[in-house]
Write a structure and sequence with these properties.
Distance between the termini of chain B: 9 Å
Shape of chain B: globular
Structural class of chain B: mainly alpha
Radius of gyration of chain B: 24 Å
Helix content of chain B: over 70%
Strand content of chain A: 15-25%
Order of helices and strands of chain B: HHHHHHHHHHHHH
Strand order of the largest sheet of chain A: 8-9-10-1-11-19-12
Oligomer: heterodimer
Structural class of chain A: alpha+beta
Shape of chain A: globular
Largest sheet of chain B: none
Distance between the termini of chain A: 35 Å
Number of strands of chain A: 21
Number of helices of chain A: 16
Number of helices of chain B: 13
């Protein structure tokens, strides 16, 4: 999930007032920063750099450069769905019954602190969240891995020999590997010596992995600095160093970029993208990023108990207009909860077309006219432009909504707890590369606190399909089952998907080789910066 | 004099205690739950309970407060829940950064405000007075955030004279000149609204003094106007100006948050903003307490300086 702060509307208004003052003067990009260095402007702060107790896209992004897992998704290609690549495991096998994963480890790899990576190190890392008797067991890590649905799947982790590890599952799960590659938490291999030396409290200040970049320093709120790991086992990265700057305010981030103080920014203000391109900057996007913005429609709300009302909400929203006018083409209308980054995504499926007249008729039929509803939303880095668009569309079919804006973390707690009866609508931007994300949104047993089915939807038929899907060995067959469940649940209309976001990223022209992969974090080992 | 200082020092204790209680309660009564921050969104109820016990959040509020206060008195501000580092280690360097910005802004505000106030007072009710004070009114009413963005657009993006963000250059920054170049725009943006207030108070105070009989006498004896302003008016007009000046410095210390956000200045204001959003209670408590302490100390210093300048103000609880 993303986090953020600031108001886009305010920024846009401010810039629109001030830009004419210097119109025509921002003609071209500043000269490049030093060759070999990327300074990346992050849109939000980074949580702790201990992958096992960390949540959030930004921490995953920083950790991705320093740490490695046994298997990782390959972010050097823009196509979706992403493919796996062996990282610390050269290869792996899955038994016919899908219960045993055998990993053959890469030889001669060392952590940044010089200690060797081997099967014992793998077991040590798994024990941190699985084995309560281990001296380095972390209850916090255990909480994260349980939440992600990873630890409940694992039956045991065994060291076969120094170069082989075997993981047994309790039941077949075709998404086991992908679940370990998400951001919350991250199944990365951390130096056992560092875990022992620094303990849970200080480990995040001394992150030690095996990746292409190693940690230099972190000044909270100022920068995180990494340098190339010269002894890296694989292809040496093209950059000498990476500096991440946490610039939560969108206008500040853009100013620093235009002033030549940073050379890549994430989520430039949508209205400014056209100007940035005209000024000579490069703006990349990925149309299959696994990023979905959606509304939850509370099935326990007195006015929403009739599914026809929830369907009418879906029909009342002009998604085409939203992506064109507000997101300036950096998103595509969403009619499914299976985001564009998953292998189960069906781009042709349309759940509910824009049909305000049909919505009105449906509301009349359900006896739900002149509704006034509460719509909760987080204070978010993009402002409330999207929610206001939805509010306007709902008003057109006779539904008044009161927007209740909350601070991000307070909102998240409330969102996680599931909607109380008095709240009709809330929204979220999220998405994972695994379609299992929809299981956690749809299944009856994944209602809070056991998952993020916070609209309290429940359909036994969809449940059965989802349980079957994750056990299938054939991913194409699994995809069909996920799609069937998605259709059933969208007919139930506990959610209203709004749009698939394209993750725009702006680059200084001196930055080469960057791949805007279909993920919410990126591989910087392919990047070069020319003078 | 010393008994006055001791009395003023003693009077700061209830103020600081009051601040600590308020800060403590405010953060605890706000919605949200830190276990979500620490354990991730879907941690088990058992894990949440365990962390609440570990942090002492299962204790009654007065117990939590007293425990915290006891530690603070020993210099232990606790650990940040988000950064998992000692609060003091995190905020002290940032407080220095904020102090650098606030002091520079205050200095600039005093120079501009003092000069404008005296100038306007010495030409009271003329066109000059109206133009100067009108300009000050504009400065005082300008939103800091907007002013910051305009300064960046003009001096950084357009003219390319000064950097737009940060305290030092991103790549291998450092050194006095580097910091100074980064300081100019945020200090100017913060200074202008404060300058407006200092100017108004200076003008008002000066006008009050200039109406006094001893000034008339001095004028009738032919003492030159600049000498009257410098030697006779300014010293007597100083106490309210100093008081407001001190308060402005206090406000700047706590109030440069917008400037820090716009210019990505790595100070406590910026930190306070992200700590509140992140519900990092020990950090919020530490920062607010530090700002409150500075505010109280600044006021104390101003009061002591005032009594040095003007013996009439040496009164504590009615005693000379």
């Amino acid at each position: 999930m993303k986090s953020g702060g600031g108001s886009l509307a305010w920024t846009v208004r401010t810039l629109s007032l001030t830009i004419p003052i210097v119109a025509g003067l921002l003609a071209e990009p500043r000269p490049a920063l030093a060759a070999g260095t990327v300074v990346w402007g992050l849109p939000v702060g980074v949580s702790v750099l201990d992958p096992h107790v960390s949540c959030g896209w930004m921490a995953k992004f920083v950790d991705y450069q320093m740490f490695e897992g046994l298997v990782e998704i390959d972010l050097t290609k823009p196509e979706a769905p992403t493919q796996f690549k062996g990282q610390l495991a050269e290869r792996w096998e899955v038994s016919d019954d899908g219960l045993v994963y055998t990993f053959h480890l890469r030889q001669g790899v060392r952590f940044h602190d010089g200690t060797p990576f081997d099967a014992a190190a793998v077991k040590f890392n798994f024990d941190r969240f699985l084995d309560k008797s281990a001296p380095h067991y972390s209850a916090t890590a255990a909480g994260y891995f349980s939440f992600a649905g990873i630890s409940p799947i694992i039956k045991s982790v065994e060291v076969m020999d120094p170069a082989t590890v075997r993981i047994m599952l309790n039941e077949p799960n075709n998404q086991f590997l992908r679940l370990g590659m998400e951001d919350c938490p991250q199944l990365y291999m951390v130096s056992p010596e560092a875990i022992k030396k620094y303990g849970e409290k200080d480990l995040a200040l001394h992150p030690v992995g095996t990746g292409p970049f190693k940690f230099v320093e972190r000044q909270p709120g100022v920068k995180i600095e990494l340098v190339r790991h010269e002894e890296y086992w694989g292809q040496k990265p093209g950059l000498d160093r990476i500096i991440f700057r946490e610039l939560e305010d969108p206008a500040t981030r853009l100013n620093a970029f235009r002033a030549g103080e940073i050379n890549i920014i994430q989520d430039p203000v949508w209205d400014e993208i056209e100007d940035l391109v005209a000024e000579g900057y490069v703006v990349t996007k990925n149309e299959r990023a696994p990023t979905l913005w959606y509304l939850s429609l509370n099935t326990r709300h007195p006015k929403f108990k009739d599914a026809r009302v929830r369907r009418a909400i879906n029909m009342a929203i002009d998604r085409e207009g939203l992506v064109k006018e507000v997101l300036r083409g950096y998103a595509r209308p969403a009619y499914t909860m299976l985001n564009a980054g998953t292998h189960a995504h069906d781009p042709d499926f349309v759940s509910f077309k824009y049909d305000p007249e049909g919505a009105k008729a449906l509301l009349k039929e359900a006896g739900a006219e002149n509704l006034t509803l509460t719509f909760e939303l987080p204070k978010y880095g993009f402002g409330e432009l999207v929610e206001k668009w939805v509010q306007r569309d709902l008003k057109k079919v006779g539904i008044e909504t009161n927007l209740v804006v909350m601070e991000w973390l307070a909102y998240l707690d409330k969102w996680n707890a599931g909607m109380p009866e008095g709240v009709a609508i809330n929204d979220m931007i999220w998405g994972m590369q695994t379609p299992e994300w929809t299981s956690n949104s749809y299944r009856c047993d994944r209602q809070p606190p056991n998952g993020w089915n916070n609209a309290w939807g429940c359909n036994p038929e969809a449940d059965k399909l989802l349980r079957e899907a994750v056990r299938k060995r054939d991913l194409k067959e699994a995809a069909k089952l996920y799609q069937q469940a998605d259709r059933i649940m969208l007919e139930e209309a506990a959610y209203a998907p709004l749009y698939h976001y394209y993750n725009p990223i702006a680059l200084h022209p001196s930055v080469k080789g960057f791949v805007n992969a279909p993920a919410n974090w990126w591989d910087l080992s392919t990047v070069r910066v020319e003078k | 004099m010393w008994s006055y200082v001791a009395g003023r020092l003693f009077a700061t204790i209830p103020v600081l205690l009051g601040v600590s209680v308020l800060v403590f309660l405010l953060m605890h009564l706000a919605p949200g739950d830190v276990t979500g921050t620490l354990l991730g969104p879907m941690a088990s109820p058992e894990a949440r309970l365990a962390i609440r016990e570990r942090l002492g959040l299962d204790q009654p509020l007065p117990v939590q407060y007293l425990t915290w206060l006891g530690l603070v008195l020993q210099g232990d501000l606790g650990s940040s829940w988000v950064h998992r580092q000692e609060v003091a280690d995190l905020i002290l360097p940032k407080f220095v950064n904020t102090a650098v910005l606030a002091l520079s802004a205050a200095l600039l505000a005093y120079i501009i405000g003092f000069a404008a106030g005296i100038w306007a007072a010495s030409r009271s009710y003329t066109a000059t007075d109206r133009v100067v004070m009108g300009l000050m009114l504009v400065f005082g009413s300008t939103p800091l955030y907007w002013l910051g963005l305009v300064l960046v657009l003009v001096f950084s993006l357009s003219l390319r004279w000064l950097p737009a963000t940060g305290m030092v250059s991103t790549l291998d920054g450092g050194g006095v000149l580097d910091v100074l170049s980064h300081l100019v725009l945020p200090a100017a943006a913060s200074a202008l609204p404060s300058a407006a207030i200092v100017a108004r108070v200076t003008r008002g105070s000066m006008l009050d003094v200039l109406k006094q009989n001893y000034i008339r006498v001095a004028r009738s004896r032919g003492v030159p106007w600049p000498v009257i302003i410098r030697k006779h008016a300014l010293r007597n007009a100083a106490p309210p100006i100093l008081t407001v000046g001190g308060m402005e410095l206090g406000y700047l210390l706590g109030g440069v948050v917008f400037t820090e956000v716009v210019f990505a200045w790595p100070g406590v204001g910026n930190q306070l903003y992200s700590s509140i959003v992140g519900r990092d209670i020990p950090m919020v408590q530490g920062v607010v307490l530090l700002i409150a302490l500075s505010f109280v100390v600044i006021n104390l210093v101003v009061d002591v300086v005032n009594t040095y300048i003007d013996p009439r103000t040496r009164t504590v609880n009615g005693q000379q």
